[in-house]
């Protein structure tokens, strides 16, 4: 999978966002100077398939508080979600699912799907009444049965598009 460097990013931050070791990232990008990366530069992320090879995409509307699963551009299902509250907004942008953890416990419910932005994910909840609200610290909350269903469809590498 290829990541395009954005303003303010460092190679170390990119390694953290994709949950891959810094040394693995260097090895996957021979000849790169880790101290000099430029906006627009492609960085190979080892161990993840290209999102273009995956038929699924996830589209999140923060204002509608919905997560839409598409397969080959066709809507398969729309789920209600909870999103970040004031001062802890859910980040807007294009991400991918980089890993997953079933039964993470606590407020994360029955499933955690990590996004390619450190500390953010799509997860279940131990507070179902929070779905449909602006309540989280920036993550996307789903009913446990919904996030479990979603996780059965989408593999790591799935593109996630978060919009206002």
From TrEMBL:
Known pathway: Cell wall biogenesis; peptidoglycan biosynthesis
Cellular component annotations (GO), alphabetically ordered: extracellular region
SMART domains for the chain: LysM (SM00257)
SUPFAM superfamilies with a match to the protein in the record: L,D-transpeptidase catalytic domain-like, LysM domain
Record's keyword annotation contains Thylakoid: no
GO terms assigned for molecular function: glycosyltransferase activity; peptidoglycan L,D-transpeptidase activity
Domain (L,D-TPase catalytic): residue spans on this chain: 56-163
UniProt keyword terms in alphabetical order: Cell shape, Cell wall biogenesis/degradation, Glycosyltransferase, Hydrolase, Peptidoglycan synthesis, Transferase
Gene Ontology biological-process entries: cell wall organization; peptidoglycan-protein cross-linking; regulation of cell shape
UniProt xrefs under Gene3D superfamilies: L,D-transpeptidase catalytic domain-like (2.40.440.10), LysM domain (3.10.350.10)
Keyword Glycosyltransferase: yes
Limits of the LysM domain: 1-45
Active-site residues, Swiss-Prot/TrEMBL: 123, 139
InterPro entries assigned to the protein according to its UniProt record, in alphabetical order: LD-transpeptidase, LD_TPept_cat_dom, LysM, LysM_dom_sf, Transpep_catalytic_dom
Similarity comment text for this entry: Belongs to the YkuD family.
Name the record gives this protein: Protein erfK/srfK
